[in-house]
Write a structure and sequence with these properties.
By secondary structure, the chain is an alpha+beta fold. It has 7 helices and 17 strands. Strand 3, helix 1 and strand 4 form a beta-alpha-beta unit. It is globular. It starts with a strand and ends with a helix. The N terminus is likely disordered.
């Protein structure tokens, strides 16, 4: 087993962190942490380093409630509103319900299914997509309902040198689309319009890694290319970014937490859960992110919609 253990000189003030990588490129389980109570600053720093290295990290058996979930998230950044478009759970504006039968998923029979269908990086239609997402499992089926993540830095590195040079010059349009045919979902999308132009290759603000920033569910076209060129280029990149060697698949148990760097990953919930009679309920918190920047130093630009604010600033904006 490939395991690393890190600890500080004073064990009384610092929990030992056990880091167990799950694949070559992405994913690690973190042991020795209890998020039901405050975690030592030294441990938080170790977790941050593991997140930067492994892109998505998993904590088994935490069994947090909403308040503890919020307290955990606040140790790593400012929380956003539960979902910039779809709202939040009652009494906890930071928390978003990821339920089996969310309205957004009910158009699945109408989809043109491809290998990249459903893969996405959270809310890239915004000018400042969330920095990270923290997902907590509550009701978990005995089988099915897994989640997959892919490493966008590894995907970029896996392109040929000429292709890397080309895609670094390109920018794409990301948007939510109100095309589900469901009034509640489409109404929410129309009320909070989000459209942004992001580089196809961004630079991670902490690690300096180049990332293939091509969220399949939100990236709709490439600026400056003809529709046919754009379609073909995007399909090539989407197929590439979800290659199995860049991915990890996580089998949930009740109480587990998945914490991913939203700047360097895309993820997918396979639709097998909809073929099952079992329920599935998770809850997500996202952290405020920065505006992405391309290899040339140019930041993303907003076309429609406001930035995603901290939950405090968002509630103040709505009350004004």
């Amino acid at each position: 087993m490939n395991m690393t253990m890190r600890s500080a000189a004073d064990p009384a003030s610092f929990q030992a962190i056990r880091i167990t990588p799950l694949t070559l490129h992405i994913g690690a389980e973190i042991g020795g942490v209890d998020f039901s109570k405050p975690v030592a600053p030294e441990a938080i720093q170790e977790i941050r380093r593991a997140l930067a290295e492994w892109k998505v990290i998993f904590f088994r058996g935490q069994n947090l409630d909403h308040a503890q979930h919020v307290a955990m998230a606040r140790q790593f950044g400012e929380c956003t509103i539960g979902h910039a478009v779809f709202g939040h759970v009652d009494e906890y504006p930071e928390v978003y319900s990821v339920a089996k039968n969310r309205t957004a998923n009910l158009n699945r029979e109408l989809r043109r299914v491809t290998p990249w269908t459903g893969w996405h990086t959270d809310i890239t239609a915004a000018i400042n997509p969330p920095m990270a997402s923290i997902l907590r499992g509550v009701t978990i089926p005995p089988y099915g309902g897994d989640t997959l993540w892919t490493n966008l830095a590894a995907a970029y590195a896996g392109l040929s040198e000429p292709m890397r040079g080309f895609v670094e010059t390109l920018r794409g349009i990301h948007r939510f689309e109100a095309t589900s045919g469901k009034a509640e979902y489409d109404g929410s999308v129309k009320r909070r319009v989000l459209v942004s132009e992001h580089p196809l290759v961004t630079v991670h603000p902490e690690t300096g890694e180049k990332l293939l920033y091509v969220s399949p569910s939100f990236l709709k076209s490439i600026v400056g290319l003809t529709p046919r060129e754009s379609e073909q280029m995007l399909q090539l990149l989407w197929e590439h970014v979800v290659r199995t060697e860049y991915t990890v698949r996580f089998k949930w148990n009740a109480g587990d937490i998945a914490f991913w760097d939203n700047r360097s990953t895309s993820h997918l919930a396979p639709t097998d859960i909809f073929e099952s009679d079992y329920d599935r309920q998770l809850y997500r918190i996202t952290l405020v992110g920065e505006v992405p920047v391309g290899v040339d130093g140019r930041p993303s630009t907003a076309i429609e919609g406001d930035p995603i604010l901290s939950v405090q600033n968002e509630l103040a904006r709505r009350a004004a």
